[in-house]
Write a structure and sequence with these properties.
Elements lengths: L9 H14 L13 H20 L5 E4 L10 E4 L5 E10 L8 E4 H7 L5 E13 L2 E11 L8 E4 L5 E4 L13 H38 L4
Parallel strand pairs: 3-5
Antiparallel strand pairs: 1-2, 2-3, 4-8, 5-6, 7-8
Helix pairs in contact: 1-2
């Protein structure tokens, strides 16, 4: 089902609201937390979660929730008036870090979630820098994962495979991109990815066959 939020310019308005909201916050960092991207991200995410319902507005979202376990698929979630369900994964990127490769979600988890056309997995990522203990947000991305071009994504070797942003300094958004095409691309990438992983595992098996042989012949 097409989402009015993401298949109109509404989501761009939400991006600007998020950016303005975060930049209007009073300084909430200490000298120690400002040095830690993890601490900054957690603090900003908590502030955002507590206020996200007001940011998106009652005309956009209902049944808002943000009480999820750390390993859950979502940091926040809401429904719209058409009954579409959105889970929001919040990511942060500190601009003075040279390399940032955030995990998004498991390919298997996403495949199951997207069996229902009413579901949307949303990436909310904001890039920021720190100036005198203030977090200054420079850019906000608030889009379904299928709007992220596979040119800026990769698959990591964790479980079934983990979708990752290859480099947070380079994110390519393709608005209104077809979910069907995106998921088919993901499948094709996995058909290349899994045989490589099998080859790695076979190599490791051979390595430890040699290790076992060494220890079988080793003095006790």
């Amino acid at each position: 089902m097409k989402s009015i939020l993401f298949h109109t310019n509404k989501y761009r308005e939400v991006q600007e609201k998020i950016k303005a909201f975060l930049n209007q916050q009073s300084p909430f960092l200490s000298s120690s937390t400002a040095k830690s991207p993890r601490a900054v991200g957690d603090a900003a995410q908590d502030i955002l979660a507590q206020n996200f319902e007001a940011i998106i507005g009652s005309d956009t979202g209902t049944k808002y929730s943000h009480d999820f376990a750390r390993r859950a698929m979502a940091d926040m979630a809401f429904e719209d008036k058409e009954g579409l369900y959105y889970v929001v994964d919040v990511k942060t990127h500190r601009l003075d870090t040279k390399f940032n490769m955030p995990n998004l979600t498991s390919v298997e988890r996403l495949a199951r979630f997207y069996e229902d056309d009413r579901n949307y997995f949303i990436v909310l990522m904001f890039s920021y820098k720190i100036e005198e203990l203030r977090m200054l947000v420079k850019d906000v991305i608030f889009v379904p994962v299928e709007f992220l071009d596979w040119e800026c994504l990769t698959i990591g070797a964790l479980g079934w495979g983990q979708i990752q942003i290859a480099n947070a300094n380079f994110i390519q958004v393709s608005p209104s991109y077809s979910r069907k095409k995106w998921m088919l691309q993901m499948c094709d990438l996995l058909f290349e990815f899994y045989p490589k992983e099998i080859a790695k595992i076979n190599s490791r098996v051979e390595r430890f066959k040699a290790v076992k042989e060494f220890w079988e012949n080793h003095a006790d």
